[in-house]
Structures are given as structure tokens and as C-alpha cells.
Amino acid sequence: MGNRMKWISLLLISLVLLLAACSGGGNSNTSPNTSEKNLNTEVATDDGSGIKPVTFSFYGNYDWLTTSPWGDNEATKWIQENRKVTVEPIQSGGAAGEKLNTMIVGGDLPDVIFTDRGSSVERLVQAGQLVALDDYYDKYPNFKKYVKESTLNLLRSDDGKIYQIPNWYTSGQFGNGGWMVNKDIYNELGRPTLETFDDLYQYLRLVQEKYPDVVPLEVGEKGAGLEIMYGGFKENSTSKFISLMGYPEGDKLSSILDDPAYEEMVLYINKLYRERLMTQDALQQTQDAVKEKVNTNRVAVMVESNITTYGAEGHRALTANNPDSGYEIIWPIHKAGLDKTQVFVSGFETLGWNVSVITKKAKDPEAIFAYFDWITGPEGQKVLFFGPKGLYWDEEDADGAPIPNEKYKTTPANERTETMRKFEDFNWAGNTTFIDTAKMSLEALLSANQKSWETVAQSTVTWKTALDITEFVNTDPLPDTEIGIIAQNVGDIYTLAYAQMVQAKSDEEVLSALETAKKNTQKAGLDKLLEFRTEKWQENVKKINVTK
């Protein structure tokens, strides 16, 4: 029902945007006439940073996102005072789609929208509501330096222009998914080998016997960790193929439901479920419920797409009472016989996570872009990740990474992490490669008990077990097209069948549900959907290869 309502909402957005475009809503696609009074900027000055004073409105298009007041923490206060930039947040109120609809209908779009790539952006492009950023990318230095050309090409809309500013893009490898174990329980049980799915099964049974009040295997919010097991049953694969409903066979995508590795995965998951070796409300549980179990020492093993966040928080909670407790990251569990160096948990895209777009309501879009370009550069990244100079660092190393000062070393890890997370919430043009390199340099200067659990987990396991899946971006059809409707129907069929397979009472029921899902998805047009996605995938491959 939720997906169907989302689809209806997207149709409404399309209609509203069409009406806005027809009525001439918005400004021209060029920078404002300099003779007009710029209501969004103060008097322009050159402070050497490449940006000028500007005030702009910002809307985070997510139900869960609440943007804190600007200037309420050390980082944004420093930016306001030293770079003369002020951001005016507009809150979604827990109903992002409806709020955006209201702003569109009222002709009152924000200056910047922070959102997912895909249909929400392309509709605004088609309605002529966004500013093309190509000239700004050429003019300002930081995105040009840090974003690969192939990444920028993948951000281009059908008209050949770039309207999007990427967030947490990368030129290297990164990932946060994986497996961890409870150190207390693992040590008490003699630290048995935990490499294969057979090893895991035996270990979970032992936990169940010895620790009846502990969840043997925790799988995250709404079972987010379950499908990432797929990568453990097949080399060079990730759960991205499940979301595509297809896995690569040569230069085309074949139905994921026909993949023997997928069948093995659902049979294994169901076995754990039937024997109560994993969370019994896996497909319904909330993030808060998961965190409560992790943070109160009631989880023996966990697999999750964002294990570094759960692990870091849980580790801090447990070590607060006992420094020897906590969680330990482990190499991904996999099928016996596979090359463990070719087993991947996460998939990463060089485009990163989401994007910001500048609407034609902005009085000075260039000034806004210049600020985002500053964010993604060395100074912006340091301020919005580690905090301004003088807080946790006073000097830099030869590569520009901050050197931790005494306050960084002596501030309790929980307090320091919480403070820095407040800064990161405003890092809307995250430069993954710069931050990861800086974090590694900083961590190298700390003693073992001062190092971040998250950073250690990333550098030793989760980055190494993430597969580059950039070539599969932008393969989702627009919802209100024929293929988009097929994708919605196929997704609905799969969601129901997957729940039936996870919770089935026998292997036979699992296989029956799988066969039914194969037939129903074929009737719904899965072949057409996979043809569409194959075409988009191969287009991406060409774009990537031409700029290598």
C-alpha cells in the first residue's frame, strides 16, 4: 500500500509540475540579471575562499530528516561568521512528498532541494524548474578536482545537462555493510571459526542453547541485513542485483529469481527463521527496536547494510560499563568453497548517496553553487566533519588532514562523536575520498583505545568487501510510464513472495513461493523491465568507459 501511494503521489507531482511549467512558473535558466537587486545575497566580497555571502532556503525531501537550526553548532556558526553564508531550513514535518507538493502548487519552491537521484529530480528538470549547473562546474575548482568525469556524465539528464550536486561521491572504494559479533559471547564460547554459513549455523545454535535471552542473529530494521547475505552465496555479487530484479549474465540482466544463489539464500534464511536463530519480527521491526537490542548486549551476531553505525554506537554503549566488552567486525560469512576475497557485502556507487538541486526560485544560483563547491573542498570538509580549526584540531599534516589536538584526545569518545555528527548533518556535498583519507591519517596518530570503532571496521573490512556497482545507477524507470508501472507491479509481487519465503514452514513452501513468484513476475512484465534496465546499464558502461 505504501509503494502504491508513493506512486500516486509521484503522479500528482508530475501533474503539478506540468501546470507550473505551462504557466511560466520559475525564473529563466540563466543566472539573474546583475542589475536586479539580489534578495538572496549580501554585498559580494572576496575573502579568498571562492564564495561570497549568501542566504538560501533548504528543503530536505525525506520524512525522517529534520534539519537543525543554522548556527546552533560550532561548524555552522563558524561558517555564518567567517564565510557569511546562512541557510534557512524548511522542514518536511514527517511528510516530505506532501510538503513538496504543497510548495509546488503554491509556486513557492525552496532555493535548494536535498533529495534522492531519479524520478523526483527528473520531473523537476522536465518541468523547467531547475538550474543547469554545467557552467558552474567548469568555473569552480573543487568538484572539478575531486569528482571523476565519468561520475559527472552519469549525473547528466536526458537533455545532456547537469542539474545535480552529488553527496558522498567517491573516487575510491567505500562501504558500511557487514557482519559483527558480540565480543563477550564470542570469547566465552571459545572464539570458534566463523567463516562459512555452516560455521554460522552451528554458532547460532550454540548461542541459542547457552544464551536463551539473546538474539542469535540480528538482521536490522525491516530485515535490511537479510538480502545482503546474497553476496555470500556468489562471488562478485551484491544485493543490488535483487533490487534490480536481475543479475548480470554476460551483457544482459536475467531474473534474480532464476539465480541458484538466490534460491540458496532464501532457503538458508528460512532455515534460520524456522529454528528461531534470527529475529522473529525481522521484516517489521523498527530501527529503534534494533538499536535497543544492540546497545543492551542482547545480540550475538549481526548482519546489516549499515553495520558501522550500529556497531560504533553499540560498542560505545557496552564499553561504557566494561572496556573489554563491545562488538568486533568480522570478514563476511560466505558459502564454503568461494574465494573470500571475491565475496562482497556492500555495493558502492561513485555518485555516492543523494544530491542537491538548485531551483529557479534562487535569486543567485551561482553563489549557492559556489558555497557547495566550497563545502566539497578541503576547508569545507574539515569544518563540516571534524569541526572548525581550534575545536578538535589546530594544525594539518602535509596532505591537509587535521592533526588531533589534546581536546580531541581527551574528550570522551561518545561526546566527541555526537558533536561531530551534528556537523556532518550539514555536509551536503560530502567528499568521501577526502574524508576517508583524512580519517585514516588522523586515526594513525591515536593510541589503540582512542581509535574510532567505525574507522577501524571500515579500514579493515567493510571498504574491502564493497563492490563498485556504479554501472547500475539510473536504471529505474519513471513511475508513470509503462515500464514504471511494470516495475511497481513486479516489486509488489516480489515483496509479498519474499515475506512468504522468509516465514515459510518448510523448504517445500519456500520453493513453492519462489516458483509462484517466477510465474507472477513474468506475467507482470519482468522481461520488459529487465530489457529496459539492461539498456540503461549498457549505456552507463559506455559513459564510464569513454572517460576512463
From TrEMBL:
Q: Which Pfam families would you find in this protein's record? A: SBP_bac_1
Q: Which UniProt keywords apply?
A: Signal
InterPro entries noted in UniProt: Bact_solute-bd_prot1, SBP
Signal peptide: which range, if any? Answer: 1-28
- Gene3D superfamilies documented for this protein: Periplasmic binding protein-like II
Q: What is the official name of this protein in its record?
A: ABC transporter substrate-binding protein
Q: What is the lineage of its organism?
A: Bacteria, Bacillati, Bacillota, Bacilli, Bacillales
